[in-house]
Design goal:
Blueprint (H helix, E strand, L loop, with lengths): L5 H4 L12 H13 L2 H10 L2 H12 L3 H14 L7 E6 L6 H13 L11 E6 L1 H5 L12 H4 L4 E4 L7 H17 L4 E6 L5 H6 L4 E6 L4 H7 L1 H6 L2 E4 L7 H16 L11 E4 L8 H18 L1 H28 L1 H15 L5 H13 L8
Parallel strand pairs: 1-4, 1-5, 2-3, 2-4, 5-6, 6-7
Helix pairs in contact: 3-5, 4-5, 4-9, 16-17
Bound molecules: guanosine-5'-diphosphate.
Length: 370
């Protein structure tokens, strides 16, 4: 049975938040019951991590009342969001994503120069495997353990329910809340399988592909589409006996990047080497992100890209809503199965059947007349 406060604190498998004390659970379970919409928004704007986590739980909820409240919260946080660098990070399982994020997180949250305080980092994940198989590549193991203990970091695993489109939408909303809570560096991680890279690319300013040597030609070919999205390729595990091979892989990757059309943002994608084990290349990696944001803010691409993204999100939400309404419409549900059978058995064409259904949807006649 769920203890009071558990859902508020989101203790889920794979969530690396340290075990809360009974006192903390009591405090937050009481808080959750009494938190109004305004208190939640105020809590987020104050940077209260427990309240931020609760609000993201609302975003992920499938209950209509929760969704409604979540929408109000996101709307109120919107004017305080956007002031961040959003970085997407992808790579095949084992490439070293969580190890690199752990290092990057330590670099960003730490004091990089004397007197210059560290910055807050939020790590969000989109894991298509959690929807397909119920299992999860990104969430099952305990990841980023030391970053998770930092009070400058907020780590949230992928929502475990819903289609990729729904999960991406929730992650986008979670990202806005994190920004409102003062997280100026947002890292959105995904596994290099399925369509999730495109979904992440659609919500970030900068896209990083972490790769490794010896992945084989077949895999490199498969990754072509992802390489084309990358602003930076980091060949990881540049340490020990691996150094020469990693350097070779880096120069091959850089050569391959030249064959892609030049992106409209004015940036020339590049490849570098890094090691999450020795910390080599981590600062360079982030400098590259900063160089990119400097360039694209100066040439206007940064805000144009975000505007384009928000417009496409709106259209995506409309498409999802229409699809859901269409599929749950009683008249459609009544006719869909029979028409699918007619199409399969050649009694009508896909086109005609689809048109019939669309006509029923836009002009449903009283039952019995169709
Ligand atoms: P992910 O699945 O992409 O998140 O990969 P992980 O970060 O979990 O790393 C997979 C394995 O590679 C782990 O055993 C890590 O310890 C190891 N690893 C990650 N980065 C490095 C690195 O820079 N050098 C070496 N030698 N091993 C690494």
């Amino acid at each position: 049975m769920t203890k009071p406060g558990e859902s508020a604190l989101r203790i889920r498998p794979g969530c690396v938040t340290p075990e809360p004390s009974p006192d903390l659970i009591a405090r937050y379970s009481k808080r959750r019951r009494s938190l109004s919409h305004q208190q939640t928004v105020d809590g987020i704007l104050r940077g209260d991590r427990a309240i931020l986590a609760q609000a993201i739980t609302l975003i992920e909820s499938s209950r209509a009342a929760d969704r409604e409240l979540a929408e109000l919260i996101v709307e109120d946080c919107l004017p305080h969001s956007g002031n961040s660098i959003r970085v997407g990070i992808t790579g095949v399982p084992g490439a070293g994503k969580s190890s690199v994020i752990e290092r990057l997180g330590a670099y960003l949250t730490g004091e990089r120069e004397i007197g210059k305080p560290g910055q807050k980092v939020a790590v969000l994940a989109i894991d298509p495997s959690s929807q397909l198989s119920g299992g999860s590549i990104l969430g099952d193991k305990t990841r980023m353990q030391s970053l998770a203990t930092s009070d400058m970091a907020f780590i949230r695993p992928s929502p475990s329910r819903g289609s990729l489109g729904g999960v991406a939408q929730r992650t986008r909303e979670a990202m806005l809340l994190c920004e409102a809570a003062g997280y100026h560096n947002i890292l959105v991680e995904t596994v290099g399988v399925g369509q999730s890279e495109t979904a992440v690319h659609e919500m970030v300013d900068f896209f990083l592909l972490i790769t490794l040597t010896g992945a084989g030609d077949e895999l490199q070919g498969m990754k072509r589409g992802v390489m084309e999205l990358a602003d930076l390729i980091a060949v990881n595990k540049a340490d020990g006996a691996n150094l020469a091979a990693v350097e070779r892989a880096r120069s091959e990757a850089e050569n391959a990047l030249h064959y892609f059309p030049r992106p409209a943002n004015g940036w020339t994608p590049r490849a570098l080497t890094c090691s999450a084990q020795t910390n080599r290349g981590i600062a360079e990696l982030w400098n590259c992100v900063l160089e990119y944001t400097g360039l694209t803010k100066a040439n206007g691409w940064f805000s144009v890209n975000r505007q384009n993204q928000t417009r496409r999100w709106m259209r995506e939400i409309i498409e999802q809503g229409l699809k859901q309404r269409f599929e749950s419409h009683p008249a459609i549900r009544r006719r869909m199965e029979a028409l699918e059978r007619d199409v399969e058995e050649g009694r009508t064409t896909s086109f005609r059947a689809a048109r019939t259904l669309l006509e029923i949807y836009s002009d449903p006649k009283p039952a019995g007349t169709r």
